[in-house]
Amino acid sequence: MITLNFQLARETFFLELDVTIPSSGITAVFGRSGAGKTSVINAVAGLDTPHCGLIRVGDKTLFNSNEKINLPPEKRRIGYVFQDARLFPHMSVEKNLKYGQQKKDVAAVSEITELLDITHLLSRYPSDLSGGEKQRVAIGRALLAEPELLIMDEPTASLDGPRRQELISYLLKLTHSLNIPVIYVSHSLDEILQLADHMLLLAEGKVIANGPLHDVWGSSICDLGSM
Q1: What is the distance between the alpha carbons of residues 33 and 27, in angstroms, rounded to a whole number?
Q2: Contact partners, residue 127, CB within 8 Å, separation at least 6
């Protein structure tokens, strides 16, 4: 399980969680703008530091204020895919993919590029790629760093309808092929209903619901409407 039991304070915002989510499949983090979604994933990734509490992935403690544990991002073994691909423009797709690799592994590169259908793009540069292709390369780069957890922050936000659906199909294929838990932030209920197994629903920095997707979706709490 992934334990999220922490508080994070800002001048005008206070986030408080005490939940566990599965360490397998896709957990969607959902809520209106300002609910605290990005604060949650940034705390897990080590980009923000909670005021106090505990963050643990399986048996690995990432943050524990009582024991003064706060692993730096590079020690957390977390792959982070942002809304924009953030590829290095001066590097080819192949070099972008291999940038975060801990060790050379030709077989792993081949497996990931085939899974994401980007093998034919290896010699290209980011400026020659579509938005969907850039995001698939960004996902491939995150996976080749051998993460223990993959965080995705609205990876389809900058894509049009067809490209968004195309990326969702690749994400579904990934979850069936790779045994890596995913925390997935999205404003789109349609995406979440296609992708997620579990749902963490936030409002104003607090947990409103947490559980299997269809239990949360089927409850009256989702009458909060399209967020």
Answers
A1: 18
A2: 89
